[in-house]
Records
---
Amino acid sequence: MSKSKNRAETTDWILVVVIAALLVFGMMALYSVTLSTYIADSFFTRQLGWIGAGLLVGLVTYLVPYTVWEKFATPLMALTLILLALTLLFAKSGLGGVVADDGLGGQPRHLGTILGIGNSGQPGVLARLVAVIYIAAWLASKGDQLSKVLLGLLPFGVILGLVGGFVVLQPDLSTAFLIVVTGIAMFYFAGGDPIQIVLSGLVSAGTFVFLALNLSYARARLEGYMDAWSDPAKMPYHVQRAIEAISQGGILGVGFGAGRMKFGYLPVAHTDSIFAVVAEELGLVGCLFLIGLFALLAFRGYRIALATPDPFGSLVAFGVTTMILSEALVNILVMLGIFPPTGTALPFFSYGGTAMVITLGGLGLVLGISRGRPKGDWDAILDRWWGDGRARVPGARRRSRVA
């Protein structure tokens, strides 16, 4: 038995410690934000409740053998698309309208507005994890067919386009962007042709630019970002305040809880801008510690992906890790003024119930994969119950080229 295989058959407890550290750090940052009279302290207690729910979901995804999720990839995707359609037809945006009052633009619709329970439940966020599971199952079933345009790239593009299109209509262009980025990265990791990947990346980039120019809220963000390159004074207000907060933090920061920018100067300090709050209060040292935790999460997650011999498990571990890191990277780049404002949250730190539950649920799945394939007759039982004649994903079952 190889050394890497031995590593993959033991729960990655270092990753557990990293997750715990991110949760504690994130809650400390959110608590500091609630010290402002502009942010209700109920956000802190609500987030604790969402963490509890997320840990429960994570425990379930950890304990249930990960091969089970491969069997149900198609039903999960179908259910997610139905939820996206229902939200699109009947739900309202998070702020009761299409345009937010924070200067950032469109807000996605929430499923909770249909049920009368307020601004909760974003199917677009759920679609990110379900897309990872479905794409992993689909890629694992293709094997060498990935190099063929008609059997690999073309149907893969249809899958991404369908999911991303539903999410764009919410409207939630940033989440759709993250889904596409994660999907393309998984296609590459599975052994997709590099030339096809570059072409698909260019097509995806062109598509998002086209959408950004034709969606009013996205166009305003993009135009503000482009104008700032010629005249920094035209930088969007949100980004200006974030950079000001970061610059005031210096090396060591002004002290935990002592930040000034969260008192009404920094828009949505408890969600999109919470990195700027950390930077102001804990300085460069705090930012490097935060980035270091995400880097360690990346190392452990990708290590599990590379050490897992099963194609589906390897792709899911890679996809979930990429899903979380891409969101964190975009959020930080926006706060630094390097990337156009997107409304993307910072995982573990930004307030948000659906995002927290999905993040912890996905990491529970990664930890379950780190234990290796389930022992016993799980696969045989599921195959008999599910029926050999019902294909879980399109195409014949083949081993992928993932090592």
---
Amino acid sequence: MELQLQNQMVLGQLPPTWVLSIPACGTGDLLVAGKTSCPVVAVTRRSDTLRAEIRFDARPDEPIVLIGQAQAGDAVQVVNTGCRIALYVNDALQDEDWPLGSADLSRAMCQTGDAAVTLHDDFSFDKAYRAAGREEIVRDLASWRPKGHNTSVGDCMPFAHDGVYRLFYLFDRRHHRSKWGLGAHQWAQITTTDFKTWRSCPLAIPIESQEEGSICTGSLAWHEGTCYAFYAVRMSDRSPARLTWATSSDGVRFNKSGRFVTLSEPYEPVSARDPKVFADQNGLFHMLVTTSVAGNGSLAHLVSTDLEQWRQLAPFICLDTREQPECPDYFYYNGFTYLVYSLRGTAHYFVSRNPFGPWTAPSGNQVGPDGLRVPKAAILQDRLVFAGFVADGDGYGGRFALYDTTGQRDGRLTFTPLT
């Protein structure tokens, strides 16, 4: 399907997904298309700011707005895949969001500016762009963030394997306000072998359907040549999040399993999230899940021999507060076992000589300084490095903050900013 749009043109029956291409944009209103006084799509350029406003029938009073930078003559594309709306300028992604419902242009009245506009359904460019990604070499990680409008770094999930420190993180736009406040987070990744030079990777786990409100925080494990990524999916219909996993042969591109782990009593399944998976010294896999028991915060405990079939055990820990222990972490280091979890974004660590406690809380057991949000750790060549984020303001998302960590003889940890 390809249609050259003209001013005062009424469109016919069209597919629910589409691409709008403007090979050389002008100034002012480039395209306005709609059936009422509220347009379905409006694309404008003023003072080199490109703006695309799209209304979806699930939230017609809350249009999605995409922002980019464009000069006269730049090529522009607005891509609606059905679960994602994106704005490109000269083949570079500017902005995106993840809608609900449909932006139906069937029988819409079009008004075009001076620039030519083509409506078509060729998504090959968009698919190739997302599949390949664009590798970026980064040497100043503390000031880096993903390219594009209003991007930031969210929860970090470091994982070390085969000499590579793989820093997975929640890719954020709009400080958790994408998809009408659901967040629409996706797993992205940046890697290093020396903590000096970093390489960005393609999206590891993207949103691929409208029901996925956000791909949330989790953890990774490697087993028999396969990398497993465990996470919770925040559902668009506000139903309980789903605990699931994706797999990869290279630790870069993942395939979703379509299978789920469900908690039962005494655990509260609605808020289950943040799965942390690790193997014990006998090769048995353990999963810790943020939840509640009898109204108090808890870490659920499950075990598996193959990372796919899970058996539920008694709680790993139960707190004496209703607050839930978020983004748990667990690792062995320097003769001690450490359990980490966050309350209100601030992480604390607990230490034991034994793999499963009893746990003690050393004095001053906060991970890093105030303002370091939900840090987690990975060990590369005996170097323990915590990764978290520092928020841009009071909202969600900001920039990376990494800390070299040294263990003391009594199990206490000291933290030094990574330089």
---
Amino acid sequence: MTNTTTTPRAKKLSLKDKHALMTRGLGWETNYVPMDEAFPYDKFEGIRIHDWDQWEDPFRLTMDAYWKYQAEKERKLYAIIDAFSQHNGHLNLSDARYLNAVKIFLTGITPVEYNAHRGFASLGRSLRGVGPRVACQMQALDELRHAQTQVHTISHYNRHFNGFHSWTRNFDRMWYLAVPKSFINDAMTAGPFEFLIATSFSFEFVLTNLLFMPFMSGAAYNGDMATVTFGFSAQSDEARHMTLGLEAIKFLLEQDPANLPIVQKWIDKWFWRGYRLLTIVGMMMDYMLPKKVMSWREGWEIYFEQSGGALFADLSRYGIRMPKYADIAVAEKEHITHQAWLMLCQYNWAAGIHTWLPSADEMDWLAAQYPHTFNRYYRPRIEHWKALQAAGTPFVNTNLPCLCQVCQIPLAFTETSDPTRIAHRESRYLGELFHCCSDGCRDIFEAEPEKYAQARLPVQQLLQGNLGGPELPDMIRFWGFEPGRDTGPYEASEDARRWAQWKDQPQTTAA
């Protein structure tokens, strides 16, 4: 006789219910100390949260699924990296000049990713809501993974090219790397909600496409399949980060009307800070890729003016408007990359990348991309510098530039109303005069002068004797570079000589 009694099966949980149990079920009310003492930072910015359970994660990704997906991406990524290395993939690059764009990425972006991991780990501890806490934990892991895979992806080039050897030291000390360093340090020393708006919304959602899309497309077009593979591996993470940023904005704005002016102020600030940081990406797009993909102007119009315009039109129902000074950024799209590259060229003796003046064909491409400005303002300067170079007297600037107190870029950008006049703003705090590159940076300074007055500007540090020694070679070695080997014009570099030797010989495959 058989027992026909069966135990009813438990109903299978939906993805939403499973995610709720894996997140909301992890929280509790403290009884040994008040909640405000356990989480002291999520109220002092003035943000009001009434119901943390209203936070919705669009991906509803649980940690067990997270590890599974990431492990699969890791297997594919490292298989391709190994194949690239074993088959001398660097010989398939379009030109060795391209590697200077990769140096910019490694020294300027990878440390930002690592510090973003630290910021999100801290953020997860600062928020009493369990949903955003879990989301921040996953993004912290993502950012750490990105830093690691970028270093591994690029490590092959360190065997064959100069300038890849001391990227952490470069980031801490190098003058132009103070720009990304000041950006991420500014975000990490803000309150938790400001950090969330700075990274997850203003940068990840509004501006990140201007970093990843042109850079990975440029890598593919110039034969750098190792970097392309990393980009593909990171894209699903970036999609999740963008949704986190949008959810953060909507969550804050739906919680309380009093949050609106605070959030708008942060959007204004971090749009401008992120936009100034992306100058290095625009410079790479216009000048550093031997094979061009698109110009900075095209990328800005697609990824900010069109996509960003649609985003802020959608957010207008919450009362959010376009970021302050977005119109200035639109006007500057015709100028900033040329001005930044020419600034770097005249200081290439003190830069960890090699620079060069564009060829005649490249100048024709720039003229087609910037028909209103390039031939009028920039071609004459480049042709004059090329004539000096041909005569054996290249233009080199050994003067110390004035740096912006906020973004820390040398004052090289011009007034939008007059591209022949350097933009220069001043502000006084505690009787001391501070310099800024724009109205946007001056606004940021004057909102929190006690914060930005402490900035460790490289030029001032040099004058105070804090950059390795009294002579310029001492300073360059303090940054982590060897003068003339890792610095200077590309045409005179070891990288250029080695590349010419390799391309004169038949390509070989490693055993």
---
Amino acid sequence: MVHFVGAGPGAPDLITLRGARLLREADQVIYTGSLVNTELLSGCRADCRILNSAEMTLEEVIGAIEQAEAEERMTVRLHTGDPSLYGAIREQMNSLDALGIAYDITPGVSSFCGAAAAVQTEYTVPGISQTLILTRMAGRTPVPEGESIHALASHGSSMAVFLSAGMLAGLQEELLRGAYTADTPAALVYKASWPDEKLLRCTVGTLAESAEKERITRTALVLVGDFLGGRGARSRLYAPDFSTGFRKGTGEGEQRPATGESGSALREGETRS
């Protein structure tokens, strides 16, 4: 059995309980060595085989898994953040499907969540933005047509840009071609939740300059949007005069379904992610 596990953004205590348990039980761990905090491996058994996938090809990763399966040994494939975001797991799952090897996925805390925690902000602020775009700049890995930064920036919504810290001059130019201005708030979060985490607040117009001064060229997430400005309307959901399925608002004759900040109905018992 193969378990794809999200390691979280960096801090070893931000892995899920399930992920930590699977690491303790693993016969083999193949981890993303360039990004995963190796402190997470300290909980592995002494006889656990540990491989660094940064030094391996896809074929070598699958070969190591095949060998473990032949020996009836369990593999944890440890990916940074959440495996579903830029984890390159689809190609691995395709290979495992072809070989008839079973697998499952344990989600993890993504770096965009760790970055928001570092900045102490909310991406979806009433009256400011109700949409978060997760994307990356085109580089050696292209992006599909229609997903260029300037096309996505035309929405003016909250944005978290992955894998682009080494291309900030180009990123800045692309953002300014969209709905953002030079004064739009921005932030660079280097190694969110790691001991050497660094937070730089700036604007879209000073993005590249700020990173250059601090010599940040990799392992940083770029946040862009007015959600960083500290403004926003109060949520209607918690207003005293607002009725929900759980409480009756003041000055209202009848209860009505709870609504989110955007006015969309929330069913009784429904939670927001």
